[in-house]
Amino acid sequence: MSGHGNTTSTPTLYAAIDLGSNSFHMLVVRQVAGSVQTLAKIKRKVRLAAGMDNQQQLSDEAMQRGWDCLALFAERLQDFNTDNIRVVATAALRRASNADAFLAKANTLLGYPIEIISGEEEARTIYQGVAHTSGGPGKRLVVDIGGASTELIIGEQFEPTLLQSLNMGCVTFLEDYFANRILNQAAFENAIAGAKAELAPLVAQYRELGWDCCVGASGTVQALQEIMVTQGMDEVITLEKLHRLRDQAIACGQMDALDIEGLTLERALVFPSGLSILIAIFECLEVTRMTLAGGALREGLVYEMMTAMRHSDIRARTIASIQSRYQLDEDHGINVAATALELLHQCPASWIPEPEAGSLLHAAACVHEIGLSIGFKHDGDHAAYLITHLDLPGFTRAQKQLVATLLRYYREQLVCIDGQHALSTTSANRLLRLLRVAVILCHRRNSRVRPMIGLNADGDALTLALDTTLLDASPLLRAELEQEALRQSSLGQPLVVHAQDAHALSHTHH
């Protein structure tokens, strides 16, 4: 029944297992329509690092917790092709003096070899996981706070340039600085100072290389984001918010009474130590903002096994996968996207200043008809639901929310949208207006007859010029644009549509 590497294995299934210092994780995925679909995530709090004494010996209890967990994982691996499984162990087993004793039994239980990877290899794989699941141009700083180590990586696209694995983690710091479970100013100050001492040797090099965006890829950062969203803040982590959460923790006085809105019970124990390490990183490296990464070590292992998924543009891959899975009309989506971007480029750069705006408008336009896969009636609501709940590698949570909102109102009913965190409220509303006009202009679904357009933006007022001959020959297009002008103007966002001679239009067009 063991069936390891048997001939009936399912070739499209992949498993990545990460024996971490705090938790053991197993990720099971399959490749479908050019994307990675998660089938199972199994996680057990094994707390290996907490069971290590001063001689770096793992206690019998900690090892037994690990073996019990691996017995569960082994059952799930029975039908896998052996080439599609990677099992790695990180900091706690790198450090344990009796790691061999643990591994001998662990390998037998699993039936697959366990690799203990170096800190550098761990950092490299984490970076691959982030690069394959998180968008964003330029250089990125990736921070992953584990149970017994913290990885800091700077890289661009899929290439890490600088990587470091430090001997500090939320489990080891819990025992070093919060052993008496007291949460006061002094405990946090000591923990932050301890983390800063670990960071000191690399600060100059990291600051000199610099980065354009910073992403966090760990349980600590995920816990922070859950807390912030629950407390009504946006998704971007800043030093001010970290200080505010530290003060909330100190106000609780001790670990048993740690009650922060949005913090789950299972994360509570290691939260203060993880928070201290993150504060130290923000202060030492002068990080101003951080968002949550889409993946880390396990995703990195999976993508390294799936050679076909190594792709240079994460968002393009995500959009292509959605178009394929939901059988969208790709040509029409591309046509609407090109029209929407043409409208955007005719507006002054200051009209929608955020550099991400064009890429989000393009994404929304390419998949704007996804709701039709459920039904024409209420297709905007269907689209918003699907986008909100789909896995969209390359998009942050706030960017997903913005795309979902744009698609909810891409035709017919128009509202003023707010509560968006990916762009300012003004920019979000302006993108929606451009998308709606682009959809109307492409109503014939024929890219060869895309009309020549001129758009002028002055504050909230838009003036759209179209070829006179075209408007005279297209009464339906004219009627739809006039109706749209009424809708936008009634919300205090004037839209004026007028006819212009083709010669004059081509002059302004160029």
UniProtKB/TrEMBL annotation:
Domain Ppx/GppA phosphatase C-terminal: 314-484
Chemical reaction(s) catalysed: guanosine 3'-diphosphate 5'-triphosphate + H2O = guanosine 3',5'-bis(diphosphate) + phosphate + H(+)
Signal peptide: none
Record EC number: 3.6.1.40
Family indicated by similarity: Belongs to the GppA/Ppx family. GppA subfamily.
NCBIfam families in the record: PRK11031.1
PANTHER family membership: EXOPOLYPHOSPHATASE, RETROGRADE REGULATION PROTEIN 2
Function: Catalyzes the conversion of pppGpp to ppGpp. Guanosine pentaphosphate (pppGpp) is a cytoplasmic signaling molecule which together with ppGpp controls the 'stringent response', an adaptive process that allows bacteria to respond to amino acid starvation, resulting in the coordinated regulation of numerous cellular activities.
Name the record gives this protein: Guanosine-5'-triphosphate,3'-diphosphate pyrophosphatase
Gene source species: Salinivibrio costicola subsp. alcaliphilus
